[in-house]
Request: fold
Amino acid sequence: MESMVVYSCFAANFSAISSRRSMGDLFVVSIGYALYGTGFHGALRPSGLAACGLIRRLHKSDTFVLAVDLPSGINTDTGEVAEGAAHADLTVTFDSYKPLHIAEASAPLCGKIVCADIGIRDEWHPEF
Reply:
C-alpha cells in the first residue's frame, strides 16, 4: 500500500502553519485561511494581493480552499469584488448569511456556503 501525504495549511495574518501525515494511498491538499475579515472594503493591499494570488493559484491547482466567513477581497455588505480576490471551494460563515453570499458578483467565489450556528439567539439580531 502506498502512503498518502496530507498537507493542510491555515493562513492568518499572512502566516502559515502546515502539517503532513501519511494515511494510505490517498493524496489530499487543502488550505484554510482568514486574511481580512468582514470589514474589508476597497482594494487589496500589496501583501493581501500576494496572499490572495497564492490562494487563487492553489485553487486552480485543485487544492481544496476553505474560506472563513468570506473569501478575502470581497465587501461583506455589498458583494463588491476587489481585483485579485480569492476563490474558495467552501465558505463557512457564522451565525447568519451575509449579503456577499447571495450577490451575483461574489457568490460564485464562495463555492459551497455553510452557515455555522454559534448560539446567537434570533431575538438578538437587529431588524433591518
Remarks:
- Residues 78 and 100 are 6 Å apart (CA to CA).
